[in-house]
Amino acid sequence: MAKHLQREIENLKKKLLALGAKIECSVRDATMSIETQDVKLAQKIIDNDIDIDNMEVEIEEDCLKILALHQPVAVDLRFIVAVLKINNDLERIGDLAVNVAERAIFLANQSKFNISTDLLDMARNAQLMLKKSLDSLINHDAKLAHEVCTSDDIVDEMNRQMYLKVQDAIVKNPEQIAPLIHILSASRHLERIADHTTNIAEDVIYMIEGQIVRHRAEEYK
Predict the structure, then answer these.
(1) 215 φ/ψ sector (left φ>0, alpha ψ -120 to 50, else beta)
(2) Where exactly are the structural domains of the chain?
């Protein structure tokens, strides 16, 4: 029974890592679609979202099956609980990447409108946070997961600054209100990607250390 459980857990880990890789690709491509105004790339992200949804459902079903058949305890139970939560956050990140891609399509069709370099910097920060959180999961690296948690404030501040800049730009250029609102929307989606990435890092810490660090941000800064 124990060997069978470990085999199921290894298969589950492979599926989660495959989903993580797909999500990382979606976020990277969403960032690139905004930067290059590549409509085809953005549409590809949108079209691929159904695959991500199906993978998320399959992983959840596997987790529930393992819980029902094997009743894992201790480290194995912590792993299954963490996978259930990480799985959900990854799927949400995938949805947010789709939202960013939709903003990219709109902005690509706007004439004489330059994408803010601040938004691109924010996208790269969110993308790096996701990469680190997935690396911390793969390598069981709690230190790296803590680094992700501390990075969330940076993206939050970038989002606040973006709001102020868009607000100012709308006053100065009211004729560009539509693309500016889409820039603000993309910024908000990127900030939410960073939030879900932080959730993943917190669950990695729980999985490795058995410590729940949500609502204790000051302790790992």
Answers:
(1) left
(2) 2-220
Buried b (16+ CB within 10 A) or exposed e, 112-123: ebebbebbeebb
CB-based burial, 85-101: b 16+ in 10 Å, e otherwise: ebbbbbbbbbbbbbbbb
The CATH classification of domain 2-220, taken from the options 1.10.10.60, 1.20.58.220, 3.30.200.20, 2.40.10.120: 1.20.58.220
Q: What is the 3-class SS of 143-188, one letter each residue?
A: HHHHHHHHHHHHHHHHHHHHHHHHHHHHHHCHHHHHHHHHHHHHHH
Amino acid 75: pLDDT:
87
Q: Determine what percent of the chain is predicted with pLDDT higher than 90.
A: 75
Q: Which two tokens stand for residue 95?
A: 């949805």
Angle made by CA atoms 77, 202, 120, in degrees to the nearest 5? 140
Q: What are phi and psi of 117, to 5 degrees?
A: -65, -25
Question: Rounded mean pLDDT of 192-217?
Answer: 88
Put simply, whether the predicted model's pTM sits higher than 0.70 gets the answer: yes
pLDDT at 218: 53
Cα dihedral 21, 44, 112, 180 sign? negative
